[in-house]
Design a protein that fits this description.
This protein is of the alpha+beta class. Helices cover 36% and strands 26% of the residues. The protein contains 10 helices and 12 strands. The protein has a 12-stranded mixed β-sheet. The protein is elongated and about 65 Å long.
């Protein structure tokens, strides 16, 4: 595509059903369905509208979150097209949480990459808490069970009792640490996409104790997206809600579940036997995410579930020095 040809982007308003159909068939990563949420997303399609990339525009920056949804060739094409669109708009391009296909393709047109995390996945055909691998998870759940904890799927869209219970856990969880009360596409409200999400909860003495909020990735994969619990809930309460979600999806024939993109200071990949130095800039990015969203602690909690796969995710950006205006614009888009 000529750099002189204007590149067309579309607001998601009015085309969410079209995007959902593509996601159902082609999505492979946690967070890709965020584009359907109540945020000012735009999308850029491939030529036959069988694949798309999301973007959000600020004054001086354009951000895309997770890899384009489509086949590998379309992902590479759309990454290049997004970068070309950013140059046309004279804005700095940031692609966050992009996969290795996009990283390799981006090198050909001049972007540089920085590993910022790993996507942790479960092969549900083989999922089990039996054996030594997830022994601690099983022991924690047994501890909670001995104290009278029970688990079930909740339905806040149709049950006022469930809606109030989940809302109460979320409110208490946010009050415990003020920085948790952030409503961006990186930390959404449990009511976002409530028509398609599923909720698995822990209860004790008639009170909700913990919630695992799950979002579909495609027709064959689910994302354990948001994990919340009361500060005084028993050890194992949240683990039990997560295990119920994984067991349920397995029984329903779902192939893959993911714990999401886990920001990584190097420990996660070292544990997996695949160490990689992040460098000074990489560690700064991780510290920003961790300070703002407290993802570091949740990453260490989620990794205890011993995922079957860890796939690196990258930040892609232009090689030139990033100007202060672009940095401020990026932070505003993220926060």
């Amino acid at each position: 595509m000529s750099s002189l040809t204007p590149i067309e982007v579309h607001s998601v308003d009015g085309i969410r059903e079209e995007l959902a159909a593509i996601l159902d068939e082609r999505a492979t990563e946690s967070g890709q369905r965020t584009v359907l949420g109540p945020y000012p997303w735009k999308v850029l399609f491939n030529d036959n509208r069988s694949a798309f990339a999301n973007l959000m525009e600020g004054t001086h920056a354009i951000v895309s979150w997770r890899s384009p949804t489509g086949l590998a060739a379309d992902q590479a094409l759309l990454t290049e097209r997004l970068y070309a669109y950013a140059r046309q708009q004279k804005k700095t391009f940031f692609a966050i949480g992009y996969n290795d296909v996009c990283r390799q393709a981006s090198e050909a047109f001049g972007l540089i990459s920085l590993r910022v995390g790993v996507e942790s996945t479960f092969n549900l055909a083989e999922w089990s808490t039996a054996g030594k691998k997830r022994q601690n998870i099983r022991l924690n759940i047994n501890h909670a069970t001995a104290g009278g904890m029970t688990w079930r799927e909740a339905f806040p869209r149709t049950s006022e009792e469930d809606r109030l219970g989940i809302g109460g856990v979320e409110e208490a969880w946010e009050k415990e640490r003020p920085q948790r009360k952030i409503d961006t596409f990186l930390r959404t409200a449990y009511t976002d996409l409530i028509d398609i999400r599923r909720y698995f909860v822990a209860e004790q003495d008639g009170r909700m104790q913990a919630v695992t909020t799950c979002t579909p990735i495609s027709t064959t994969a689910w994302y354990l997206q948001d994990l919340t619990r009361l500060a005084d809930s028993a050890r194992g309460s949240l683990e039990g809600a997560m295990v119920l979600a994984l067991n349920t999806f397995k029984e329903e024939g779902i192939a893959i579940a993911t714990n999401g993109l886990l920001p990584d200071d190097g420990d996660l990949m070292r544990e997996a036997g695949r160490p990689q130095d992040l460098g000074v800039m990489g560690n700064r990015v991780i510290r920003f995410f961790d300070k703002r969203y407290q993802f570091g602690g949740i990453s260490k909690f989620r990794i205890k579930f011993s995922p079957d796969g860890l796939e690196p995710s990258y930040l892609l950006r232009p090689p030139r020095a990033i100007r202060p205006g672009a940095v401020r614009s990026l932070i505003k888009l993220l926060t």
